[in-house]
Amino acid sequence: MRVTSELPPQWPAQVRPPGSPDWELSAAAWLYDHVPADYRAYDVLRRYPVLLARMAGEQVAASLEAARVGWRTLRADLRDEIPPEAVEAAMQAYEREGRRLAEVGRGIAVVLAALRGRRWIPRL
């Protein structure tokens, strides 16, 4: 695959462009940042970065769903146990974390596509 300077906007800055030297190693290093540390113990994930990307995508999707559930239920669950300003701060934290996880999920999706050999074609 040839190196391209055109990458999708969701492409993670920490991952080298597809086709560049060691790009898959940089992808794996970035992907490992988004899964539990124990995943590093599985040789199969080191041998098959596409599998690591798939599992990272599932992990981030589950975390995003957990953040959404927390955001929806926080007020009802804790309104009598923590002060209103703590509830509001927690709601903001859930919102920020949700945005971050969604962005990571989009990055994982484009890295997974590249690992599968897909090329990004810019739309006009």
The major sheet is characterized as: none
Radius of gyration: 18 Å
**Low-pLDDT residue spans:** none
Helix content: 55-70%
Tally of discrete structural domains: 1
The global form is: elongated
Which class do the helix and strand fractions yield? mainly alpha
Distance between the termini: 23 Å
Number of helices: 4
Topology record:
Elements: H1 23-32, H2 43-47, H3 49-78, H4 84-115
Helix pairs in contact: 1-3, 3-4
Fold and architecture overview:
There is one protein chain. The chain is mainly α and 124 residues long. It has one domain. Helix content is 62%, strand content 0%. It is built from four helices and no strands. Helix 1 (23-32) runs parallel beside helix 3. The longest helix has 32 residues, at 84-115.
Features:
124 residues, mainly alpha, 0% strand, elongated
Brief rundown of the structure:
By secondary structure, the protein is an all-alpha fold.
